[in-house]
Amino acid sequence: MDLGILLHALTPSLESVAILVTFFTYLAIFGSILPGKVVQGVVLRDGTRLHYRCNGLLSLLLLVGLLGVGAWMNFVSLTVISDRGLELLSTTFIFSVLVTLVLYAAGSRSHNQGSSLKAHVTGNLIHDWWFGIQLNPQFLGIDLKFFFVRAGMMGWLLINLSILAKSVFDGPLSRSMILYQTFSALYILDYFVYEEYMTSTHMDYRLLSGWWLSHNKVEITTAPVIANCIVFLIGYLVFRGANKQKHVFKKNPKALIWGKPPRVIGGKLLASGYWGMARHCNYLGDLLLALSFSLPCGISSPIPYFYPIYLLILLIWRERRDEARCAEKYREVWAEYCRLVPWRILPYFY
């Protein structure tokens, strides 16, 4: 693809803007009106808590159903996202930059002293713009962090389904595509089934492997398929198990973990289960899952492995920041926890 064709493909169109606006409008409306369990977020510094309506699974199933009916009635194309992938990417990028600028400007003018909306301005423009200056910015009563994470997860599934449709139209599905689509669908559905657990954590999502497989035919043998499934399963068990243990502990510090009373350091820090194996064990699960999404692409190119490599660098950097913040917040309690659990992410290695 020469530069002219690439630039043309990246140029946003009215159709790509309409797709993005329709998607966000759907999420804003139906995320607010559909029934769902209302859960409390973590306790903030001022003692308040945000509340989240966890109806993401119902919103997702309804959206997929509506799109399926629309495709059956020839109102929408199943491959519209994969066909307009680059322009949707550039449109989303521009939208994201504009949103961050608006949030920066709004946050700078905020006089709200609550923990969620109080402005934390360092004076470093790039730092404040990149990391944000409000903890939980809102728009029309919608928590934007929760909203955009949900949008990312739903968008990931819609992109995958569009890529899948295009692959089906182009010919028989490869094992690699089946693996990637299966792992991704399980991961996304799991997120929405346990959406309330995500009110006390964060999420990333990854898409590059699907795009790669849609343009490159990769066939893998049975042994790599089994190995890939094992990596995904271990990653899922660690990721889901660690996050579930943390969520349950925050709600009930006396709840059993692996059939035993939890070991708690200083009455604050969980040192049982996965959290007794490594201080950031959930990162290990996330890394293994990221790797499992890339392994179906084989080893012919490093491009599909961009995300797990990027995530490894990101999580090590984030882990160092977490360590410094926890050391300052918990002091001697954190020092005791580090003595008891010396491993950061991967037991007996790092």
Written description of the protein model:
The chain has two domains: about 1-170, no CATH class; about 220-350, no CATH class. The longest helix has 30 residues, at about 220-250. It is mostly helical. The protein is built from 13 helices and six strands. The protein has a two-stranded antiparallel ribbon with strand order 1-2. Strands 3-4 form a two-stranded antiparallel ribbon. The two termini are about 40 Å apart. α7 runs antiparallel to α8 and α10 (about 220-250) runs antiparallel to α11 (about 280-295). InterPro entries: ERG24_DHCR-like, Sterol_reductase_CS. Pathway: Steroid biosynthesis. Keywords: Lipid biosynthesis, Lipid metabolism, Membrane, NADP, Oxidoreductase, Steroid biosynthesis, Steroid metabolism, Sterol biosynthesis, Sterol metabolism, Transmembrane, Transmembrane helix. GO terms for molecular function: Delta14-sterol reductase activity.
- Gross morphology is globular
Main beta sheet, described? 2 strands, antiparallel
Straight-line N-to-C gap: 42 Å
Provide the structure class: mainly alpha
Number of domains: 2
Mean pLDDT: 87
Strand order of the largest sheet: 1-2
Work out the helix count. 13
Question: Nearest-angstrom radius of gyration?
Answer: 22 Å
Helix content: 55-70%
Beta-strand residue fraction: under 5%
Total number of strands: 6
Helix and strand run: HHEEHHHHEEHHHHEEHHH
**Which runs of at least 5 residues are low in confidence (pLDDT < 50)?**
none
Family: Belongs to the ERG4/ERG24 family.
Protein name: Delta(14)-sterol reductase
Organism: Acer yangbiense
Subcellular location: Membrane
